[in-house]
Design brief:
Layout: H1 7-28, H2 42-54, E1 59-62, H3 67-73, E2 79-82, H4 84-93, E3 102-106, H5 113-120, E4 128-131, E5 136-143, E6 146-156, E7 159-168, E8 171-180, E9 187-196, E10 201-205, E11 215-223, E12 227-231, H6 233-236, H7 239-245, E13 254-257, E14 261-265
Parallel strand pairs: 1-2, 1-3, 9-11
Antiparallel strand pairs: 3-14, 4-12, 5-6, 6-7, 7-8, 8-9, 9-10, 11-12, 13-14
Helix pairs in contact: 4-5
Length: 267
Amino acid sequence: MRIRIPLNILVVIAMLAVIALIVYFFFFTGAPQNQPPQAMPQSIAYALEYFNAVNSNKTIIVPSAYYPYAEALAINNNRVIENDTEYARILLNDSHYAGVDYVLIDMAQLNNMSALFEKAGVHAAWNVTEFNKTYYIANLSTGANKTYRNCFVYGNATDVFDECQLFVSSLRIGDVALASFPRSSTICSINASIFYNGVNSTYIPSVASPNSTCFERGLMFVYQGVAAFYMSPSISQTFYGREMFMPYNMLRNVLDNYGEARVVSLN
């Protein structure tokens, strides 16, 4: 026995099926929408939104992890590209590529240093040493009429970073950063420190001589209440170290300051 269905009923069923597929596509398969994914860090969103607001017909390179967010925010004929090898070479080798106008960088790239060094083809000794993010204030003494006063002390006796005022015979000489690194009892002078409060940064060079017994040429970075860490020169003296961590007013290429993220001109 054959069941016959009138043609008009088949047309209605087909239309309903098409509508159902459209609804499913837009609501369940992640079809392109005007709003970017909600997981994007706020600082990244601010940086990209400002970049797009003040630029047109420009190309920005971003790490692949941020590409979907950056692409979703792109307006004014701005173009977003991802190429993690080129990105790493920009950050660590100060490389430039034809047609790439800007690069997006953020503090989170510190967690990706191994991969960046590998992709950039850089073989260098580098390290990031973390210290206690909380501090207390104390005066330290080393004898020979030299004292360290009003020190911000991060850590403990065997793993500590101090930012101090250096006095010699009651005369203030300047500021100095000192550190005793893990598994070492030697107290070393640090080239400079940067203190960041989430909005503004303060750069404090040390008065210590590079010829000191133990002098580290890297950079201490203190994000007040969040983190305190030392970056070796192989990081701090790269494009990334300079453009991400140095105070905004000391740089010329940063588009604006967005906290933990920056957009930097490559031209």
